[in-house]
Amino acid sequence: MGEMMLEYGYGGKILRIDLTEEKFHIEKMKKSWIKNVIGGRAANTKRLLEEIDPSCNPLGSENILIFGIGPLTGSILPASAYHIVTSKSPLTGILGDSAAGGQFGAEMKLTGFDQIIIKGRSEDLIYLMITEDGSEFVKCPEYRGRSILEVTEAIRKKQRNHSIQVAAIGPAGENLVLFSTIVSSGNRVNGRTGMGAVIGSKNLKAIAVRGSRSLKIKDPMAFFSEIKKIEKAILNHNEYNKRYRMGTTMLMKDLNRIGILPTNHFQKGACSYLDNISGERLEENYKVKNKACFNCNLHCSRYYICNDHEGEGPEFEMLCSFTSRIGNSDLSFALEMTEYLNQMGLDAISTGEIIGWIMECEEKGLISPEEIGVNISWGEKDKIREIVKKIVYREGIGDALAKGAKKFSERFSKEAQKLVMHVKGLDIICGDPRGIKAYGLTYAISSRGADHLRAEPYFELTDRREEAKRRFGTEKAADRLSEEGKAALVTYSEKISLLCDSMTMCKNIGLCMDILNFENVSLLLKTCTGMSYTPEYLQKIMGECINRDRVLNKKFGLNSEDDTLPERFLKEPLSEGPTKGSIVDIKRMINEYYKLHGWK
Amino acid sequence: MIKIDLSKCTGCRRCETACSFFHTGKINRNLSRIKVIQLYEKGIDGPVTCVQCKERYCLPCPVNALSIGSFGQIIVSPTVCILCGKCERECPIGAIEIFDGIVFVCDLCGGDPKCVKACTEGAITYIPDNEHLSLSEIKKETEDMTPDEKRDNYIKKLGAALRKKWVR
Fold first, then answer.
1. Global pTM?
2. How many whole angstroms separate alpha carbon A535 and alpha carbon A539?
3. Tell me: the pLDDT tens digits for A243-302?
4. Residue A181 is part of which domain span?
5. Which domain holds residue B6?
6. Radius of gyration over alpha carbons of chain A, in Å?
7. Is the peptide bond before A131 cis (omega within 30 degrees of 0)?
8. Would an 8 Å CB–CB cutoff place A349 in contact with chain B?
9. CA distance B43 to B163
10. Does B59 contact chain A (CB < 8 Å)?
11. Does ipTM come in above 0.90?
């Protein structure tokens, strides 16, 4: 018996590209292969586990890079436009992946490819022009050194088609900066774990997609009625207005208020100049309009114009990384950096971390300015500009900084190394775990290194005590300063997060706004794909997928000792503010978390 | 006619998906009679669809397959149409286009346009019996352009005016 065709939701095909041979090959996506991973991130991880040599050089031609989408990507589900890029990370040496919204995923859906798997290395700088028929390999030496927008517009113009969506790398990716990004829709970033460098190492400048195949729905009317419920839940949400106005930059004020806004590289949890750098200030002074991802009714993204600088964004992580985290009180400078980083293709969090780390180490005398040729203190704009540019072009000290904070720190004292805020080599996001314990647990266990998005336990910030008791067995799960119930919260949230990344949907909506649950996702998947999904089955397969991440990372050399946090968060309480006195009991949460997973 | 307010468009393309889904039960930009152009480098987004222009450039059809309906919408007879592409070439804004052997043009959904409902931002409105827009200025510069290039050109024009308000 032949495999059943994947007719609904899925494109049903896989595109394999060998850059060394300049060849492509189209395969069928098997229903039996995809059903228990759904698509997107979980499918990409499964593919990586099956096909990668774990010992490979992440920047060698043998590393593989996977673009993946899910059955609901590009459908009428709001915020369903996410695509995930997965590879062995050159920054961390373990599982690397990153999601981005915008428009790329929706267009990729129309090509009929659920996964695009790229291996090898091209001799010349090229871009891929992918349609439902396969891929063209287009030489583009003239794009070397070009920004994301320049490349995006050049490809659209050359192909005489403005519906083409482009995912490109900037100069940072070409120069193999280990925390470089892939950017699509002009400013939508696959930011973390250095996926840009993997593309750069393959001598690839961009991946362009244009499709004309239809996305078919198994039961359009039933699907539509589920969608209507979700749209309504978004529109009626108590955070709708705030998110519409400011997107995630609303968190500047929220986090500062509870004393967990990283300030001067996590030495403080609140900053005195918050009103100058808040989401409110950004909205008031520089926002010209709202922007949105494909088919979203929240429209939480924004377009800013500030002097000579403009673009879509910034989101909270970018904004905080270039304001309080590095002691800068000038919002217009942060916007200038937003444009520069997005167009050059550099991850804001990792870039902010390395700058902040140097500032703190120099302040404490752990590194002398002579050693690295940079003398920089908090918020020194000209010097920040100079360092970032040196990283992009790997000039002078920038060449070593391009390896990331953790690797760069290895030449300095133990004391200096301890101050790198990372887990598993990936730099920590902007949120001090001493005041958000479930986030602390998430950074520690995240399979791509310090990161909140693997579980995004935003629930602990919403003060819903009764709901906490009902869902996680204790009211304390809604108490941000408590360790109790946090393992249960994280094991729930990480499954919803993985569902978001696999079906695909935005985690701000699906998870933070608490819109998705196993019940409505099973209905969405069933009515869209025609395959049977129950809430219980979804929970089971998401658990299996989380185990798979761990199996893969074990092959990459990780073990359970790597599931921890930087010493600062375990031993040093903050000295002031609403999170004063609190440290993270990570051991307790990890033990409970392992127990819930049945891990040792 | 359908009226577009570019300053309110976020580029979400809900109008596109609603159009395609309502008419066909599927989602595909090519099946939509309204298509959003996104000028990433300028922050401009805008949907393009038939504006029932004063000139009705598409109407002179070699086989008379096109007519005007009671709402002012263009009606294409699929049995008469020979897919010569003249209407597609004549439209100055790329609002009528052949895909997969079918001519796609806005039919105003029988007077209740689905794109208007799908737009939560008020960027698309429908005003019956409104004065019709002239496209004669735009028409001059669109020879040899593909429908996609004509849409891009149209939104660039409208966008330039909006940019002046932003960058004062």
1. 0.97
2. 6
3. 999 999 999 999 999 999 999 999 999 999 999 999 999 999 999 999 999 999 999 999
4. 13-209
5. 2-166
6. 22
7. no
8. no
9. 9
10. no
11. yes
